[in-house]
């Protein structure tokens, strides 16, 4: 029996091999399509994300209530919530608004400067040779090292705080933009040149979409560092803001105020990161990326 005949016999007795010299017919037996496995019923993602914080808070509450931990060192979460309610009656919204505004202004300024310089160094080799070594050296300077210099140059008003936040946001965004553009596949650029696209069209239709994932990752990292640098700025010289509350809690030995402020910083940082993640998902909706079946 020929191999061709064996194949047709494997499809069923009703299917006979074609005659010699005849064109083989189309496959008559459809390929069986296995049904997609039923997804296990899972909790909503937002609820899953709350499991670990809830477990840690419950463990801390039990540890303090049982006497394992001293309440003056680690107040129970219930006491921290009471402190937040107390602070809310004493102008907490003003501190939150001041810190949020500083982060928004500083992050915007730092991100815009980083996008412009990162694109310039990625698209022009001379610019990369001139600016990138200096940027990489400045990136290694700790945040607190900038504070004395900024205070000497700009005083203790809002300017040094905003500049420090902008510095914190600048470097992650710069790295994302520069690495994203320089990492674009060279074949894509060559195809764009074959189609005689102008430099502006290449940037808009090829470079930007290909580098956008890296750019958005840099923006998310820069936003997180902006919150960190905001705390460093407000710890030095501020009369309002979450950093000021941290300093006030330390000076008055109020661990509940310190932990309440840390909790507020975590909530605000997560909220801003979630907004950035929504923007990323919207701008990258065209991307067919891998996602674990458990997360589908």
**Mean pLDDT across all residues, rounded?**
83
Total domains, how many? 1
Sheet bearing the most strands, described? Answer: none
State the order of secondary-structure elements, H for helix, E for strand. Answer: HHHHHHHHHHH
CATH superfamily: MetI-like
* Tally of DSSP helical segments: 11
Low-confidence stretches: 1-16
> Radius of gyration over alpha carbons?
29 Å
Proportion of residues in helical segments? over 70%
- Taken from the alpha-carbon principal axes, the silhouette is globular
Question: What does this entry look like structurally?
Answer:
This protein has eleven helices and no strands. The chain has 296 residues and is mainly alpha-helical. The protein has one domain: MetI-like fold. Helix 7 packs antiparallel against helix 9 and helix 9 packs parallel to helix 10 (242-251). The longest helix is centred in the C-terminal third of the chain and has 38 residues, at 199-236. The radius of gyration is 29 Å and the shape is globular. Residues 1-16 have low confidence and may be disordered.
């Amino acid at each position: 029996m020929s191999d061709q005949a064996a194949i047709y016999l494997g499809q069923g007795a009703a299917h006979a091999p074609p005659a010699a010299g005849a064109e083989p017919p189309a496959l008559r037996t459809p390929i069986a399509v296995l049904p997609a496995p039923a997804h296990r019923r899972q909790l909503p993602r937002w609820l899953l994300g709350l499991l670990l914080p809830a477990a840690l808070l419950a463990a801390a509450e039990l540890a303090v209530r049982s006497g394992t931990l001293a309440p003056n060192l680690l107040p129970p979460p219930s006491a921290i919530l009471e402190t937040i309610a107390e602070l809310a009656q004493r102008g907490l919204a003003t501190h939150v608004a001041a810190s949020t505004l500083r982060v928004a202004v500083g992050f915007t300024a730092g991100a815009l400067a980083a996008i412009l310089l990162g694109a310039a160094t990625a698209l022009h080799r001379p610019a990369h040779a001139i600016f990138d070594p200096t940027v990489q050296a400045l990136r290694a300077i700790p945040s607190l090292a900038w504070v004395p210099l900024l205070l000497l140059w700009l005083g203790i008003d809002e300017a040094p705080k905003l500049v420090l936040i902008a510095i914190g946001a600048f470097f992650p965004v710069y790295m994302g933009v520069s690495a994203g553009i320089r990492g674009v596949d060279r074949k894509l650029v060559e195809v764009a040149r074959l189609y005689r696209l102008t430099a502006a069209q290449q940037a808009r239709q090829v470079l930007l979409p290909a580098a956008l994932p890296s750019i958005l990752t840099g923006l998310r990292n820069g936003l997180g560092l902006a919150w960190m640098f905001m705390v460093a700025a407000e710890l030095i010289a501020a009369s309002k803001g979450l950093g000021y509350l941290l300093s006030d809690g330390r000076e008055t030995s109020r661990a509940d105020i310190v932990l309440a402020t840390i909790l507020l910083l975590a909530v605000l940082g997560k909220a801003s990161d979630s907004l950035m993640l929504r923007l990323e998902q919207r701008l990258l909706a065209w991307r067919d990326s891998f996602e674990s079946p458990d997360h589908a």
